């Protein structure tokens, strides 16, 4: 048995549909899906199509810098969604994994002050996550190889900090 979870594109297709079905079966009808970039972009897109939600937003949050390498705290990167766009909405926050849960907590707490309701959906949740997501496809304590990040970039770019 591998010490890693291996998520392929095919398994991701199954996982995202099953996750969407869990959300639908629960009766939760989000007004918008808020993706945590970058890994959450794939999950949010798949859930948006499966739940027939066309209103997708993105939050860029930096936390992981490599395999098991993180910043001390997650940081929101610009552009940060306008609170006006979220006011009164029912929001589904989508990400690929709730590992420490710090990123999800940052985004959920940002939303909580403005929205009617916020719930979180992830493909994977780890047992030590600070956030217990409402919708989880699989729970694991192993490192996960995602199909979108397992291979090195085609080109390496210099790290740039964008002005707000």
Automatic annotation (TrEMBL):
<dbReference type="GO" id="GO:0016757">
    <property type="term" value="F:glycosyltransferase activity"/>
</dbReference>
<dbReference type="InterPro" id="IPR000836">
    <property type="entry name" value="PRTase_dom"/>
</dbReference>
<feature type="domain" description="Phosphoribosyltransferase">
    <location>
        <begin position="9"/>
        <end position="151"/>
    </location>
</feature>
<dbReference type="Pfam" id="PF00156">
    <property type="entry name" value="Pribosyltran"/>
</dbReference>
<keyword id="KW-0808">Transferase</keyword>
<dbReference type="InterPro" id="IPR029057">
    <property type="entry name" value="PRTase-like"/>
</dbReference>
<keyword id="KW-0328">Glycosyltransferase</keyword>
<protein>
    <submittedName>
        <fullName>Phosphoribosyltransferase</fullName>
    </submittedName>
</protein>
């Amino acid at each position: 048995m591998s010490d890693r979870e291996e998520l392929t594109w095919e398994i991701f297709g199954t996982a995202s549909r099953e996750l969407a079905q869990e959300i639908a079966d629960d009766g939760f009808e989000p007004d918008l899906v808020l993706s945590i970039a970058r890994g959450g972009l794939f999950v949010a897109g798949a859930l948006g199509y499966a739940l027939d939600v066309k209103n997708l937003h993105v939050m860029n949050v930096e936390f992981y810098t490599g395999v098991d390498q993180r910043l001390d705290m997650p940081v929101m990167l610009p552009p940060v969604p306008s609170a006006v766009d979220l006011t009164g909405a029912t929001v589904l926050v989508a990400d690929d994994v709730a590992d420490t849960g710090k990123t999800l907590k940052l985004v959920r707490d940002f939303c909580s002050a403005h929205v009617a309701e916020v719930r979180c959906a992830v493909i994977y949740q780890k047992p030590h996550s600070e956030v217990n997501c409402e919708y989880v496809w699989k729970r694991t304590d192993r490192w996960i190889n995602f199909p979108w990040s397992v291979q090195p970039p085609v080109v390496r770019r210099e790290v740039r900090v964008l002005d707000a």
